[in-house]
Amino acid sequence: MHPLYAAMPISFFERMSMRARETGAINLGQGFPDGAGPPAVLQAAADALLTRSNQYPPMMGLSELRQAVASHYAREQGLDLASDDVVVTSGATEAIAAAILALVEDGDEVLMFPPLYDAYGPLVRRAGGVPRYVRLEPPEWRITPEALEAAASPKLRLVIFNDPLNPSATIASAEDRAALARFCIAHDLIAICDEVWEHVVFDGARHRSLTAEPGMAERTVKIGSAGKIFALTGWKVGWMCAAPALAKVLARAHQFLTFTTPPNLQYAVAQGLDHEAAWIEQSRAGFERSRDRLAAGLARIGLITQPSAATWFLSLDLAASGIAMTDEAFCDWAVEKAGVAVIPISAFYPEDPVTHLVRLCFAKQDSTLDEALARLGRALPNLRAQ
């Protein structure tokens, strides 16, 4: 057994989901919507299953999907991509794993920005790399040029950059993207850009990829997720976009992970990217309304939240709400006493965690959010009385 995995404890996400199932708690911890997804995309998948080939599709992905991804990013983000720059993967996590395995050599240092997706660190270490961290500070969560330069070293080879950032529900500023691009160019670094939340942005914002920064097109791996775009998390269809020299190496790693992805789902995602722009916008607006509903409901019961500019998540600020508990302690209390499962932000830190923020998923039906708020509202007076 490899010691990295043998010694790895069960994740807090899995633990809270199990407790939600055991106790009947409402699960606002794990990030998945409870809607059905776009009907036309679902129908396209069903039709393709019955009428198209169910044998191995090309390792790089179906040409229809690769071209649809390139065309989608040209329309939505002004990126100049060809279908040969796209490698289809079985979800964004596989894309992250393939990129890390393809690009990290023994002893390479990889810069990351906690709070972060908890898969990054173990994958880097398993590839022989050494994680380096620049800790982002609430409530701004800024990447500063000074912090970047302090992390520079002769062994630094890669940066993993998540934008929009899941745990904090923030979007990197133009200044932060520009500073990170300059840093990558100055130190000859490749950036793995985890941009799965690129379409779930609010308040009139538009996503801008680090790939679009001057000098970055040849040194970025842009990762996307159909599961996030179409709210179909179980489909596990993702992709990597990179310049040809990088894409060729990425594909070699991918072929020995999953090799390929179900063809009917690839056909359906291609249809969705080409024809379902209105559904994507409608979905984004719906998530924004759910964010506002949950934030307003929490405020009514005396719980203060931080702004959520993107993603399906909202952070409850325990300190600002007058609750003298750590985030883990509050999560244990919430699932046991209130019947609501939520996630501590400290779970997204490999070291020196922030411990006063709790993440809630608002990608739920109104009735689910309202019942969660009612349960918290009934339980909070007892907590405050302690």
Give a verbal description of the structure.
With 386 residues, the protein is of the alpha/beta class. It folds into two domains: 136 residues, Aspartate Aminotransferase, domain 1 (Alpha-Beta Complex); 236 residues, Aspartate Aminotransferase, domain 2, CATH 3.40.640.10. The chain is built from 14 helices and twelve strands.
Short description:
By secondary structure, this protein is α/β, with parallel strands linked by helices. It has 14 helices and 12 strands.
Taking the alpha carbons of the first and last residues, their distance comes to 46 Å
Residue stretches low in confidence (pLDDT < 50, at least 5 long) are none
**Structure class:** alpha/beta
- The CATH topology of the largest domain comes to Aspartate Aminotransferase, domain 2
Inertia-based shape: globular
How many beta-strand elements?
12
Strand content: 5-15%
Reading side by side through the largest sheet, how are the strands ordered? Answer: 2-8-7-6-5-3-4
